[in-house]
Predict the 3D structure of the following.
Amino acid sequence: MRTALKSVLWIMLAAVSCGREDVLETMWVSTDIHFTDRMSIEEIEDAKTPAAFRHPAWKGERIWAQLLIRTIGEADGVRIGISDLKSGNDVIPSEMIEAGFVKYVMGDVFADSFSQCGERPVGKFDSLMVADMVDNCEYIDLKDNALQPIWITVKVPENAAAGHYEGRLTVKAKGIRARKVPFKIEVLDRTLPSPEEWKFYLDLWQNPYSVARYHNVELWSKEHFDHMRPVMQKLADAGQKVITATIMNRPWNGQTEDAYGPMVTKTLKADGTWKYDYEVFDRWVEWMMSLGIDSYINCYSMIPWELEFDYYEEGCDTLRTMRAAPEEKAYSDYWTPFIKDFESHLKEKGWFGITRIAMDERPVPRMLEAIRIIRQASPEMGISLAGGRHPEIEAELTDYCVSFLAEHPVPISERRARGDISTWYTCCAEKYPNTFTISPLSEAAWIGWRTLAADYDGYLRWAVNSWTADPMTDTRFRTWCAGDTYMIYPDGRSSLRFDKLVEGIQDYEKMRILIDEWNAADQLDKVAELTRALSRFDYKHLSESASTGREASEAIEEGRRVYNKLSTED
């Protein structure tokens, strides 16, 4: 009965098609929906949208749409053809449009609690297939009654003329009459700057060691950098501002599938002095900068989880470790000469002003002691923290990121006046809003809106590519909810979560530009109206039902309606 109803529904939804009985059926669906192998008829119906793109685009902007294909009968060799987009004599060429098959990967369901932290052995939580990875394959074979999302990306050229553009997608398969799916976009006479010019402070932590393991190549070899390029370029194209570097071995005690190694080699010489080798650190930083990620360097960590510190002894090739707490003399003896030498090296490279010694949440007394040692060795060294609300150390933090439900101890405006960065983060501790594999996609876009509404400078997420053992098929991890450890797949394959995060960042940039213009033109009524729309982007306006994404979707939809209306008014 369920199958029959489903077939009837799709027949009603499908456009007129010619060909044999087992045709390909299509419908535009919301980009806020993660399709799973458990989607009900009602959920599919709710996902329908009347048009591919619901809001106008700016020149230079990337916009997304989701087309759902359903098969009645098997369909081999399904391909997507893309036409140019035309507005009179103006053209957006098909080369600026991509259509990717969204592949299903294994995820898991939420725990009952708000926090999604903790051990997740196989079988503890129910698993399901989630359409998340945007694959770059040329075609796909589909079984009968398959639900196959297609992710459409349009990169609007900066030199595109404003206007209404029309084009079509062609869905083809062997032995089946092609389906032509028209779509339209509107381009406004506004230009979004390129990502390297965005003000949004994006800090997604990178894991180069994961790439080497997955591709089975030697660390820091040419092959390693070649495999990292599409991943990190995807990150650069999102406006990433920070290079994640490690100045010691296993700063997080190897909690991911691939432990972080030291990018700086420390050698204790026979005379008791230290020698430092920055070759790997320099190569990594210079290479990331060549991709356009060159604003800041965050170096982890003087306070690792296990308080174990690596070094070599002169004439010995075995990596040794010592244990010392920040309040102990051995700790100061280890770190003080390094900080002094590191400062000299950074100044020689021209990087001192953009480098921070970075910490994530550690006991306050130990953070205070580590900061004291840094200040004695290098009074001007930048310091960053991702953690809770700590008034005791706030003034020392040039880059301070607080958790979702925390607040900065002093107004962000005060920190901004000092030239300091103030951001927020989510992690396994929040069921919503988040970017887990199972998370509603609207929550990823919501992040950009919340950042502006709360006057933050940007957002941090602890890992963009700490891949699981088999990241192309299984996003589950032994600890934390599936998808927590990465948003970009191997070889630079995007995820719907990542693209929606970028979508929200673009909204942030567009609204920031408009607010600056309106303030300069004394159009304070427009600022006030947009501010009222932004008031919905707060935790108190979410609830347990936010796990459906509906509240986030509605808030974003209304916010876009407001700023688009205001941007076109005289």
